[in-house]
Records
---
Amino acid sequence: MAEYKWPDADKRTLIGKRISRLDGPQKVSGKAKYTFDLNRPGMLFGKVLRCPHAHAKVVSIDTGDAERMPGVKAVRVIAAAGTELRWQGAEVAAVAAVDEPTALDAMRAIKVKYEKLPHLVVDNDVQAAGTNARPTAATTTGDPDKAFKEAEVVSEGVYGMPVITHCCLESHGSVMEWEGEKNLLVHISTQAITNIAPNLAGPLETTATSIHVHQDHIGGGFGSKFGPDAWDVAGGRLSKAAGGKPVKIMLERDAELMVAGTRPSSYGRIKVGAKKDGQLVAWQSETWGSGGVGGGGSPPVPYIFNIPNQRKQHTAISNNVGASRAWRAPNHPQACLLTMSALEDLAAKLNMDPVDLFMKNIALTGARADVYSEELKIAGELIGWKKNWHPRGDKTAGAMKRGLGVSIHTWGGGGHASDCDLTIQPDGSVELKMGTQDLGTGTRTTITIVAADTLGLPLSGVTHLIGDNRYPASGGSGGSTTIGGVSASTRRAALDALDQLFAKVAPALNAQPADLEAVGGAVRVKSDPSRSMTWAQACSKLGTTPLTVRGKNPGPGTLTSQGVGGVQMADVSVDVETGVVRINKIVAVQDCGLIIDLKTAESQVYGALIMGVCYALYEEKIIDAKTGRTLNPNMEFYKLAGIGDIGELVVHMMTGKGYDERGVIGLGEPPVVSPGAVISNAVANAIGVRVPMIPLTPDRVLDALEKKGGNNASI
Amino acid sequence: MSDEEKVKEKDSGLSRRKFLKVSGIGLSVPLVMGHRVIKVAGQEVKLFGPGKTPITLAINGRKMSASVEPRVTLLDALRNDLDITGAKRVCDRGTCGACTVIMDGKPVYACSVLAIEAQGKAITTVEGLGEPGKLHPVQQAFVDNDAQQCGFCTPGFVVACKAFLDKHPNPTLEQVEKGLGGNLCRCGTYVGVRQAVLQAAKAQRGGRRNG
């Protein structure tokens, strides 16, 4: 019986090394095929007509002209007369035609009469939201009134972040094709291969077992691609109406930015009380925000620091904006900004270094206090905190002001349910099969590393098949749950397979199965490595029957756990004449348990920092309050950072003793939590006033400077 | 109305108003016709459309033919008509660089060039640079430095880097950041891209010295 644990550090041949992603050559050469790239035989192009208004009712819809156009193969009404549409971009009708220009023309030929209804798109004004504001009752712990009375210093501020989008570079969409009446082949850009068929079966009136889902590569998801969407269902119906011909619908960029998911906004009026020595004693917060019609989640404040004596109240605003979806680390960047900004403002009021304030209260962070302490020390050294930090407001002459900021964050990241089939063929070839997907996080590479390391083979000795719902089910890739799940199921499958192989091989080596090990492409006796045979010779003992073993997560042994801590520090320069913020350097120190591939793990953190620079400095979904229209559903005005905007990024992974023993823990979410807070704090430190809202655009920076006390500015 | 427009209308047999109408909706019939030649201010000018028109493109050293409407971009012709899908459609309006190809030696956004206008030009897409097993030094450097995650921006970035290095074989980091400012990545691979460009520059310099 195998012992289900990770190999000791000195036995790891591939795990934890710096390994280039296996699908890299495909991706850099254009060979990697994404859903958007598919040209299936006889494929039709689908287009979706979308509602131009934030809130309207369909009075009438006439698809006659579209249907009569040459080249048009199917037209489907999605929102019949009488349907209420509650955000701009809501689906109204869909067409499929022989080529893309014809499909566009047909879409434009559909005549729809709308009755415009009153709309609300504002998300930062509880009063203006009226009955669309849904306040929850305040929750109280301890005695906040008494604690604030006894506090020696109290800091108050308003902070916030607007709605942003996922802006996946490969937009959402699919190619749907019927093979007969019942069977549907689905190519779809998805983070959850195994979720698609069960969710399409009902709307498309077939069974989940009749739906074959496949995806080789996905061009970004970030939490927005878990389900089949309305346009995928429309594609399925168009395909059926067109006799089963494949129908490809990929969202246009404007739709991608209007309807394919957002991160909810979050605003908060925060009051924090402390003793003169920095000991935190009281917290009070009123928070509000919106994630579209659904309202959006309540940020978990105070973030990480469990301050005694709290009063908290949250108001969700439901408005006429495309609905929010999970956005990398849901609710955490919001809670982090609200909390870390408030604490940094408090530190400034106390004339205290914020790192000292954090350390003074480190016990309030709970179970990971030691991790944070160690990380704060390392991050401080990497950014030169002691040398470069100054009390709030850079007093040096000139327009360029430099400042430092700090923030901490956490995330769960335990492994999800995952099944894995590992097959060893009698010729020694090994194949992994798993219904997972590689979001660009390196899933392919990591499962291959785990199997090869376990079997004592080189990477080239193991092939993999993923991205198909006919493979053993593995969870959706979200919430940093993938790496724990897939690495654990693969490890268990490989260990069990070895056990069974050793049983076949042991007699030939005059040994007991438990005495054998697989190392360096050979199976040998642990105590006498000279008694050995090659991997291929060993596998030939299987006879003519391949050995297939199912590995599962959860399962025996502790291969994955959850709960990580990370610290980030930023060094920025702000031009107080133009309001432009430049990143000099950001340091990220991150714990994630045992690392499978150091190279792709670091890439996750670099990527998170860059995504963080995007939302800290540039990103905002701007909607005109009066017309209800999105003003920047394109990439020239919905801004992302470019290669020259990110400064120097330093990533330090906490590995080795004290970390590896925890098993594998997910990494996608945690490092994206802090950048908004850490950059906002660095800017406050540089210019001497808080810019209450991110993104820290020049107008907001100049506005805060003009008010000379931005921390009380209204949103 | 200018003389030029009058000439056009006369030769095409359509009023300006009608021309706009048919090219928009009325007559987008999958009807293939070649271009006509008309005289404008004494010069002969090709007039395409409004229906499909045959085109020939020189892509990665091969001549390829298709029939597309004049409004079809080079990017869509590559992807939809010729099944060359390395160049990606992301912003579709000249902002993000995911569709970058090299046309007569210069990097261009293929979403912002009409297919009919790309005729007679030498077009290199990412597929023309190298393939697994025979990667171009820029592609190899992207792999080595993990300058990719989801990989959707990667082909455009690779092509832009190749064109950039042709012009700046020994670039400074500042030049890299400026020269590649026309490509956007959402996963955040810029750290790897910066390193990749510098590695590729070194490899190419070495290659030239040796060869």
Note: Chain A touches chain B through 66 residues (CB under 8 Å).
---
Amino acid sequence: MTQTAIHGHVLIVEDNEADVFLIQDAIATKKLPVSVDVVKDGEQAVRYFDRADADADAPCPNLVILDINLPKKQGGEVLKHMRRSLRCGSALVIAVSTSDSPRDREQMKELGANGYFHKPSEYAGFMQLGDIVKGLLAAGTPATESSSS
Amino acid sequence: MTAAGAKALTAFVAGGHVENSVIREMVEALPVAIYTTDAEGRLTYFNAAAVKLSGRVPELGTDRWCVTWKIFLPDGTLLPHDQCPMAIALKGAEVPTGIECIAERPDGSRFWFTPCPAVVRDAEGRIIGGINLLMDITDRKNAEIEASEQFRAIIETTPECVKIVAPDGTLLFMNAPGLGMVGASSAEAVIGKNVYDLIAAEDRDRFREFNERICRGEKSSLEFDIVGLTGVRRQMETHAAPLRHVDGTTVQLAITRDITDRKQGDRAALLLTAIVDSSDDAIISKDLNGVITSWNKSAERMFGYTAAEAIGQAVTLLIPPGRLDEEPKILARLRSGERVDHFETIRRRKDGALLELSLTISPVRDAQGAVIGASKIARDISERKLAGRSALLLSAIVDSSDDAIISKDLNGVITSWNESAERMFGYTAAEAIGRPVTMLIPPDRLDEEPKILARLRRGERVDHFETVRRRKDGTLLDISLTISPVRDAQDAVIGASKIARDISESKRVRAALLESEARFRQLADTMPQIVWTARPDGCVDYYNERWYAFTGFSQDAFGDASWEAILHPEDLQKTQENYYAAIKAGQPYNIEYRLMDRAENRWRWFVGRAVPVRDAGGAIVKWFGTCTDIDEQKRVQDDLRRANEDLEQFAFSSTHDLQEPLRSIKIYSELLATRYGDTVNEEAQKFVTFVREGATRMEMLVRDLLTYTQVTKFEPPRETADANEALNNALANLAGAISESGAKISAEPLPSLPVHGTHLQQVFQNLIGNAIKYRSPERQPIVNVGVKRQGAHWEFAVSDNGIGIDPAYKENIFGLFKRLHTSDEYSGTGIGLAICQRIVDRYHGRIWVESESGQGSTFRFTLPV
């Protein structure tokens, strides 16, 4: 599959700016033809989806990178809300977290996350997120779970 | 006041001054306080009586509404002058008549009065002034109050229930005796509630109908039963009258008497009649003239006369002509209050046949004790001769008795001697009969016999007299004696029968029991615990002193309910269930509960234990229990558990939270080095390296700490874990270190055991990881994992050929953050062995190290089989 076939809009839901930078870096290094929006907490994310439903011209992501631990509304709730959205309900979702707990993985999977990324503490490891995004967008189907540690 | 008078007064007021001196003089002289005001209520005139009544000289033109100093309503609340009846009238409102007020004079004295305000209007109907008459009603009020006080005194001192009931059954008033009858501890318990609830269910409708009748204005009385608040049934007789209540309704005023005792008396009389009628003896009563006044069924049978025939006849009707002299003698004895006992004589039936009778005749007295007649019980003894037959039977009984049965005459000479007497005293009947009974009495007790004989001669019986007697062989015997007088046919005492029971054994047992009980109580009272005993059915029959000191209960409070009262409500059901289940099963029990500490007025935790005490046959004869105060222990345990939980929760969440910023520090210091390393000087590069190393170490610490805290969240494993698999997983995680160090790892075949696989893996991983980390630089690291069975557990051993541990530090190394090396020499967090220790602890195992410095180490740990 060629890169020109990949089009998309990515929404990053992440409160930690340091991680936002790394996620953007991971996408940028793969030179994916996608536009990226960033929201900083759960409520903003919910509003983002609501606006997409209310306004056909508003952007709607086909991939969401969703931190589990968010201010105001947790990642799980955001995911539940998104799955009920008319326009964005079928977007691909990669849950990201510092936690490596099996319970978190299990819960996000049950809520319909397509991938789970355990944030590593090395730069190179973090950049693997780009591969996962690329793979998911190319296939349009859930990727296997991935973790760098 | 007449119409003309009113008109004159109106003119007098309207003028505001005195035009008519006749009226003025008349008003001045009136013994009623009168004053007038203008339309604004300012005083324009008052008479001398107003000054006298109010106790002050009002100021004309300044004082408003009233001449009085202060006004109060009957309930004692202050009535401001601008709200007084005169003020209300002047504001054009209707003033109800007959209002009663209290006024206070400046000197503090008070008087009751009734105001009669009226307004004066001009031709257009405008209010131009007012006039008020104050009627002094103090005397009347005082008389009323006195009367009501008297009334109250009567109500409260009468022993009858006085109550007032509303038409709907609401109890409006009840005096103290009434409260007592219905079992109410205070008036609040019943006043304002429905009185019908206190009436017995079957009488409730009748009482309701009665109450409604009274409230319609009737006077009536009623007998009914009450059950009160406590369910105790009593019979009542009430006399009720309608009473006009303050609110205008008609209510029931009733005086009610408790007639339970009287009713029971009636019943007793009925019962007595039934007994009299069912008696086989003829029971007859007569007056002092010998006229028959009652005649029972048996009298009909015995004499052949019906009650109708006999009553009213002279009792001589029954006496054969030859014995007519008996009656005057009997009557004479009765008049003097004497009783005639078992007088054997002959009487005649209606058909003329003669009867042999035994008569017992008692005087009948009136309530003042005067003899007014006699009751006569006649027993047919014609067949008494048949009794001889039963003597044989009696003798058989006497001989088969375990008790010694002896008879003696009034001189104390033995006249009969049964087989048990032979056994007990060692004398044969032949040896004993004819000899004085004193031969059985030890010398120091010889004075007993004359006393016993004296009592017997008086016809008295000696019951269960415990004494000591002497056997033929001289040994002493504890016995219990019961001695009854023996009478001849004429009722004269001619001797005594004596039943002697050997109580040596029971006396010994009782003494031993008393002694052991006394010892037990002494012991129990010195114990710091509460000690109790209970009957086999669980009913508590003893507490030691500590119980009474703790509860403040009185010493006679026993039984089931005695402990329930101070048990914490939340523990009550559980404790009862446990206790009675244990009693039922006959099993010891052990339960924790809270009891109320009277001294500190708070609950204290106790552990209650009880064990059954069984007799030789295994039957439970008693329960023995203790309550031990574990409050302090419990509190410390609770505090400790809470503190531990808090700490672990804190450690868990803080390690999680710590990870996130650490990750950023690590990655960004890495980025700083890779992207900008070339642009900064060597020192700056070194600093960045320190930051990265510090962050890496911190990250390890946090991860290990997290693992350590998670070991606490322990649940017993549901299945066994294969130790070989756990070891392989550990080795897989250590693959990097193993290949890097070139270590050689070997293992014996390992068992499966009841632990969590991840825990075992963690221990292996830490121990083997350490073995590789602390390897000797001089040789290839070799690690061996072994196991052997040691009784109820497996003892694992992880041996290496590394640098070893100085024996001085053998104990230290398992502590949290304990390290023997700087991080320059060996990296590490000082948590690994603490985790191992903690895991092994969870399974009640042990971990220790055997090592010589430089000679390698062997870590051993035990886990359950």
Note: The domain at 3-140 of chain B is CATH 3.30.450.20 (Beta-Lactamase).
---
Amino acid sequence: MMKDLLNKLFQKENGSKEEAKARLKFLLVHDQVDLTPAQIESMKTEIMEVIGRYVDVDRSCAEFKLQKEAGGVALVSNIPVTRVTARAV
Amino acid sequence: MSECIVVTSGKGGVGKTTTSANLGVALAQKGNKVVVVDADIGLRNLDVILGLENRIVYDLVHVVEGECRLKQALIKDKRNPNLFLLPAAQTRDKNAINPDQMRELVAQLKEDHDYVIVDCPAGIEQGFRNSIAGADRAIIVTTPEVSAIRDADRIIGLVEAAELPEPRLVINRFRAKMVERGDMMNKDDIMEILAIPLVGIVPDHEEVIVSANKGAPAAYNEDSVVGEAYRRIARRLCGEPEVPYIALTTGGFWKSFKRMIGFSAGGAA
């Protein structure tokens, strides 16, 4: 009883609105993008190929996200590099 | 200088017609000559919200097709002689008129009125294109829900593509209690996502249904919190951008505390 009361008193914002916001941010970008999932997949593969020519990358951990930023949509990617030594191209 | 404002949302049922009616009333009460235009041909409702459904003789399509003069189709409000309704046709559809005809109609209405408020139908098709044709600016109505905000975002894109300057946002059906417990997006959350200036927040309140039952918009009621929200939107639209927002909380710490431990049955919306 007392614990519930204290929890309520010091309640943090952990309601469902954060989920709503996160879903919307994803949704709005994908509503605007006129690419099929297959096209997005092939874009990712090609980008990884190009980067892979210069450095070793961990393809399994690479992330690509389209997200809404001030002023438009950004392609944000996070690609772990496993070896930075330049190779002979 | 007269101005045409289109009230739109994309999604149906978020409060476009309620907003159009209340803004019409609030702007007229400030002494402006106002006409509210129901652009929802085939599914008209602005007439019932204003309680004028028994007075319709001619409608917007009759005017456009030249079957009557514009003045014959305008219905004067029961309560405010500055407010007029141009009703939609009920037995026709959105294709009965085109954007050029709408532009011409709005231009004519602007000659005799300070504000022309166009109540846009839901959707992004012909009815929407007709509604924005003659508008100088747009008000986007949304509710704090994922589906309504998604559609609002789409409509904002279409309004901007049509080169209407600075669409403004009305957040309708705001529930302070849900916002306070983190179960509803607040003003800042919604503005972060939609990125257009806010012009008002309207609380979710039973009054809206009672007003619709009676055919008397809440803006006529001096004691109504919903009416006050719309009166303040009207002031912001008329060049008083600094009008403060009405307090949208359930009453602060002690009230929440008492409610929590069972002293009171619930707060205001």
Note: Confidence is low (pLDDT under 50) at residues 264-269 of chain B.
